[in-house]
Amino acid sequence: MTAVLVVDDDTYLLRALRITLQAHGYDVVAAPDGRSALLAAQQQPPALVILDLGLPDMDGSAVIRKLRGWSSVPILVLSARHGSEDKVQALDAGADDYLTKPFGLDELLARLRALLRRSAEAEPPALITTEAFTVDLGKRRVLRDGQDIRLTPTEWKMLEVLVRNPEKLVTQQQLLSEVWGPAYAKETNYLRVYMAQLRRKLEPEATPRHLITEAGIGYRFLP
Amino acid sequence: MTAVLVVDDDTYLLRALRITLQAHGYDVVAAPDGRSALLAAQQQPPALVILDLGLPDMDGSAVIRKLRGWSSVPILVLSARHGSEDKVQALDAGADDYLTKPFGLDELLARLRALLRRSAEAEPPALITTEAFTVDLGKRRVLRDGQDIRLTPTEWKMLEVLVRNPEKLVTQQQLLSEVWGPAYAKETNYLRVYMAQLRRKLEPEATPRHLITEAGIGYRFLP
DNA sequence: GCCCGGCGTCAAGGATTCGTCAAGATCCCC
DNA sequence: GGGGATCTTGACGAATCCTTGACGCCGGGC
Description:
By secondary structure, chain A is of the alpha/beta class. Chain A has helices at residues 11-23, 34-43, 60-68, 84-93, 105-121, 153-163, 172-179, 188-202; strands at residues 2-7, 26-31, 48-52, 75-79, 97-100, 127-129, 134-136, 141-144, 147-149, 169-171, 211-214, 218-221.
């Protein structure tokens, strides 16, 4: 069943959402604040997150950014504010949709279907395997000899960009702007440091076979 | 550049959108009705579609369904109606987002960014094949007997210029200015050195069959 | 047959870039 | 606040790449 994580401190709204969603065949997990939401998302990864911006413990955009640090689950944001600044902020933080209260439950359900449809399309190539290691893009995990390897958020993002473009040359600027942001296009130092860490964790032999460097241009992932 | 197809019969709004989008680095294609929109989407596939539901010739949801018949391009719907039925209908027809007029341009841009972020798509293959080797322009790669050949940045640029002009004569000045810059138009030495390296890496036989020199003029690539 | 310009070849040097390491700085959870 | 993990930053040899000059070959013109 499709699991939906609902993050809201409004007990009444939470109840209404739970009943409606369950009636439409979704599996509902609830969290009243940002911390418990992040915890719940980690312990049982949902297919979608419905997030109220007005949380008691932390800023909504902060929750989105933290979640995006290790998950690519679709996020639908709820808010009572009509101002567009909040919307822009939330969407740029990594949210996928934004709904202003009050809203119709049928609209919520329709947007939810649209988001799930999209993420289902993007799903297929979720598992990439090489002789040395296996990358699970959906679960954000890397396995090597059955053991799962611990990667830091930055290491993961970098590996993800490379793995999503198999055999393709990824430019240094492309990597830097996707992992650190467009403003870091000159910091090729970072690439060398993190590539070394990735290789130390993933490449069994001394000479890299899957994470190849193309001198002067960028890097390339070979399955 | 990112191409956006804007479908709207409101001339004023169209102008505003075109100016704003172009100012943010998007390439705008406009269509005033459903028929021309579908045609335009087919002829030059955009990275995203902004669709006004109130079209003169056909129902908005019908346009979405037709488009979805052969394309998975993200669709952002605009509408003046506040009723939720239209939203549900459009979203379930295959739209990805829905914005009610009047809306803020910064919110539109933010939603647009969120949609484009989601659709990380693959580019066309762009393969050029000869008897001896295969050039993959998209992945920036050269294959020979299944093995991939390692080229330096300069070698690659030179090969790329030649391969993008198959069977055509590329003059020395053209090559030099595209690879090294216009200031190097006299350094024909470079061409000889790098052409020799390319041939050693790509041509199986002693006499070149694909990288031909036209004495006194330039070089030519034969597939 | 001789001269000469354009081309292919080679190798050395100098310039860039890369891998590596380790020491701060920063963030985050307890 | 304290401690651990993570992220920056700088420096250094090592590897790679680019530039440069010299040399021989070939073909056309005289």
